[in-house]
Write a structure and sequence with these properties.
With 676 residues, the chain is an alpha/beta fold. Helices cover 42% and strands 11% of the residues. Helix 5 crosses helix 7, helix 11 crosses helix 13 and helix 19 packs across helix 20.
Length: 676
């Protein structure tokens, strides 16, 4: 198997993590004691059981139909036509029967009925939340089209088997089965990957929209269509980054849960505001480019900001300011990274979340022209193939005074220059070797340091020089020229939640100048306006970075901030920043309408806010917004657990605070008297 593995690496250029990382199977190795993923043992047991039905598919179909009937669910999605039952089925579609867009209770009921018919030990609890599980579209619940050829079902069974037994040694088999499965009409990439994730969630990642969006935030771009080789490369890259803590989530299920939470973080069960209201905000943002939505607590400002961006059909970025947030998080900074030198650690300049967002906005512009040559992948493949053939290549030192040997590292993913104990090269000496991975050599090729500390970079430069001389590597050239017409560009909206909670001068730095609406786009001479040198600009000079000559905010980038009016940090927002934004209040009454509150909730909120407005020392900034009442049925509990402490905090230090508290409480419960 080692030979097969090396062949896959050498011929296909796939980057693998090490065998030990890939073959980890115990969830505790990844997650410790995690309680969110209680579904995993059940799914693993049902998947293993289904292997027994590969040659008993008619029995599996009967189990499906009888289970759906017992659960009171329709079986129409599992018919060859309106009346004819299926004659064949695959195991992924079978498991998908309780992973569709049905009610949670119905999914649990059906899954447990199936478990009983299969004789399983595990059952899903009544509280199962199915966290991190992507589901099939209810209108397309099979991985095949009806009346497909028999061999298509066999391809899906094969994918199921290879996904279930997926390991380091069997990656090539899985890649082959994945490619074959995608030839089945009706098996989309998203369906193939999500169903494989169900049965082997600690090793296989679902390529659904939520996950690909989060991967993009980690700098991993996922092609719209993956081959088996590319899918393996993605899986190994994600696993490697998890192990190296470059991805904060500790396992693939935890990553999938974060992706799902990210998709929901600024959403809610809220009615879409009236279109005219949204257009009003959209026009404000387009005219001024920078908008702050402010108002009382709980008025749905963040939700509204997202709806504005969606109304513009914009790409959305998001962050939340807080007292510890700074320039390195927002613009750029030095971050610790692992290195190959003796210290084992160095520092590398990394873009902050806003600067990275601006790069995406520029590259999205249709008028951006990219020119140049970059054939590193091709030359790397040639080098690896040669090393696979001859084992060792001598590389001339840049000084011309000698050579050093290179060979493939243990896993075939990078290069090593080892010192051996004997001339037979049977045993090499740890601590006296140098290792150069592909990414480090690619950095050298682009004119960047191989590692932040630049240790052993002269050796890397010598390797790149050899690749140019003997393996067809061309000089790296990239020219990016912006000739775009901003009127026709896709808008990018960056939302800063609780913008007033951060120390703005520390976070924005020289961007105070660039975010001014008047400094977007090109001047009369066709030069970019608003360019500033960032704090680490010297590290970009002479590189191919888009902002190598200075940072600017593209004309298609818009900024929306949100802030609570009663937050004490509101007063810290200086006039220089205020001048660059327009401010629009979101009232408590508007929030009640936007959130589609029931009549009782609106009545209680209105009475309480009227009492607050009559309270000396308080005003409309202290009103209670609709989000406090969203989905509430027990209004006594709402008061006891949330509103009481909030009102107490409002009144802290005031004269006669107890009587003021009682008047607001009476108003909430409908017992108010007509005094002020």
């Amino acid at each position: 198997m080692e030979e097969i593995y090396k062949k896959i690496v050498n011929e296909n250029g796939i980057c693998f993590c090490n065998k030990e990382e890939l073959n980890m199977t115990n969830p505790k190795d990844f997650d410790g004691e995690r309680t969110e993923f209680t579904w995993i043992p059940f799914y693993e047991e049902i998947a293993k059981k289904l292997l027994e039905y590969k040659n008993k598919r008619s029995q599996l179909i009967e189990i499906l139909y009888s289970s759906l009937k017992e659960a009171g669910l329709s079986s129409s999605m599992y018919k060859s036509d309106e009346t004819e039952p299926l004659k064949n089925i695959d195991p992924l579609t079978f498991i998908g029967s309780f992973n569709r867009g049905n009610k949670r209770e119905d999914r649990i009921k059906l899954a447990n009925i199936i478990a009983g018919k299969l004789g399983l030990k595990n059952r899903l609890s009544d509280n199962e939340q199915f966290l991190s599980i992507p589901i099939l579209n209810s209108q397309k619940s099979t991985l095949f089209f009806k009346h497909c050829p028999e061999e298509d079902y066999d391809k899906l069974w094969n994918l199921f088997e290879k996904a279930l037994s997926y390991s380091f040694e069997k990656q090539g088999e899985f890649a082959e089965s994945f490619d074959l499965a995608l030839t089945v009409k009706g098996t989309a990439q998203s369906y193939a990957t999500m169903t494989c994730y169900w049965i082997n969630p600690y090793k296989i990642l679902s390529v659904d929209k939520n996950n690909t969006d989060l991967l993009e935030e980690y700098g991993i771009k996922v092609p719209s269509q993956l081959s088996g080789k590319e899918y393996l490369s993605l899986l190994n890259k994600v696993t490697e980054k998890i192990q190296d803590n470059e991805i904060k989530e500790k396992s693939i299920p935890e990553f999938s849960l974060s992706a799902w939470n990210n998709s929901k973080q600024i959403q809610g069960d809220i009615k879409m505001p009236e279109q005219n209201n949204i257009l009003q905000y959209i026009n404000l943002l387009k005219e001024n480019r920078n908008l702050i939505l402010h108002g009382a607590p709980g008025t749905g400002k963040t939700f509204l900001a997202k709806k504005i961006a969606e109304g513009m059909n914009a790409k959305i970025g998001f962050c939340q300011f807080h007292p510890s947030y700074d320039y390195t998080d927002f613009v750029e900074g030095l971050r610790p990274v692992k290195t190959d030198d003796a210290s084992g650690i160095g520092f590398e300049r990394k873009d902050g979340v806003f600067k990275e967002f601006c790069k995406k906005a520029i590259l999205n512009q249709t008028g951006v022209e990219r020119q140049g040559s970059d054939n590193f992948e091709e030359a790397w493949k040639s080098l690896v193939e040669k090393l696979d053939e001859v084992n060792v290549i001598d590389i001339p030192l840049l000084s011309g005074k000698g050579t050093f040997p290179i060979e493939l590292n243990e896993y075939g993913t990078g290069l090593a220059s080892r010192t051996y104990k004997t001339e037979t090269r049977d045993e090499w000496i740890p601590g006296k070797s140098k290792f150069f991975n592909k990414d480090q050599l690619y950095n050298i090729y682009k004119g960047l340091p191989g590692t932040p500390a630049e240790g052993h970079d002269n050796y890397r430069k010598a390797v790149v020089k050899k690749m140019k001389e003997d393996f067809g590597l061309k000089d790296y050239i990239e020219i990016i020229e912006n000739k775009s017409d901003s009127k026709n560009q896709k808008p990018f909206v960056f939302i800063i939640d609780e913008i007033n909670r951060g120390e703005l001068s520390k976070i924005f730095g020289e961007l105070f100048f660039s975010i001014d609406p008047g400094y977007r786009g090109l001047d009369e001479d066709g030069k970019q306006k608003g360019i500033v040198n960032t704090q680490y600009q010297n590290l970009l000079t002479g590189t191919s970075d888009i902002f190598a000559n200075g940072f600017f905010i593209p004309e298609n980038v818009y900024i929306i901030g949100t802030m609570n009016d009663i937050d004490r940090s509101v007063e810290s927002m200086d006039f220089a920043m205020r001048r660059r934004f327009i401010f629009k209040e979101v009232t408590a009454e508007e929030s009640a309408e936007n959130m589609n509150l029931g009549e009782e909730a609106k009545s209680r909120m209105t009475r309480m806010n009227e009492a607050i407005s009559k309270t000396e020392g308080l005003n409309s900034s202290y009103f209670i917004g609709g989000s406090y009442f969203l989905g509430v049925t027990d209004f006594d509990k709402l008061w006891d657990l949330k509103l009481s402490s909030l009102i107490t905090e409002y009144l802290r230090g005031m004269d006669d605070d107890n009587s003021k508290y009682d008047r607001i409480k009476d108003a909430y419960f409908g017992n108010e008297t007509p005094n002020n």
